[in-house]
Specification:
alpha+beta; 4-stranded mixed beta sheet; two-stranded antiparallel ribbon; 6 helices; 19% strand; globular
Length: 187
């Protein structure tokens, strides 16, 4: 913590719960890795994520498209639920977020870090303009160049969207899934 906590972060730490502070730190940790270690790219991954195969195809697609940022939609069961969650908690989940250390990636990351520093609280969903560190991602596709919305259903599987896929077994030591239903994103 001492390595990346800036005076700005420390100034808000006492005003937030531990969870809120952790959310505040999400983009700051990524920015620290890019700045301090001069990494060309950094991916934030939630601690409760599991990969059943390599995420390399996601990074390959990002590179093919010339993108600098990856965000992952929640993928709820219906368009109605997608709209409701978009307005309350955000369309994208802070769980697997990638930023390239270039102008486009760094601009999006820095904007997100600054917003989380200003305001990053747990509130009743829909009662405030923002929600934790997550709802800020709603504006990424329109506000920043080079944002890729990840369409790989193997990234971001969760209890709220697992019913959208069927597990079909394995091929060449990698799980094969079939998407049963594609919910149209509101974006």
């Amino acid at each position: 913590m001492k390595e990346f906590e800036t005076p700005e972060l420390l100034s808000v730490k006492k005003e937030r719960t531990q969870t809120e502070y952790n959310w505040t730190c999400s983009p700051w940790i990524i920015r620290h890795v890019l700045d301090y270690y001069h990494e060309p790219v950094c991916t934030y991954i939630d601690a409760d994520m599991e990969f059943l195969s390599s995420p390399q195809p996601v990074f390959d697609e990002m590179k093919e498209k010339g993108c600098s940022t990856i965000i992952v939609p929640h993928r709820f069961k219906s368009e109605k639920l997608e709209k409701e969650i978009h307005d309350k908690q955000g369309s994208y989940c802070v769980e697997f977020n990638t930023f390239v250390n270039d102008k486009n990636g760094y601009d999006a990351l820095s904007w997100w870090a600054d917003r989380c520093l200003e305001w990053c609280f747990y509130t009743v969903p829909g009662s405030t303009e923002w929600y934790a560190d997550q709802k800020y991602l709603n504006v990424f596709p329109e506000k920043f160049a080079g944002v890729m919305v990840c369409n790989h259903y193997g990234v971001g599987l969760a209890p709220w969207n697992i019913s959208l896929i069927d597990y079909c077994g394995e091929y060449d030591n990698a799980p094969v899934i079939k998407v049963k239903k594609r919910v149209k994103s509101i974006r």
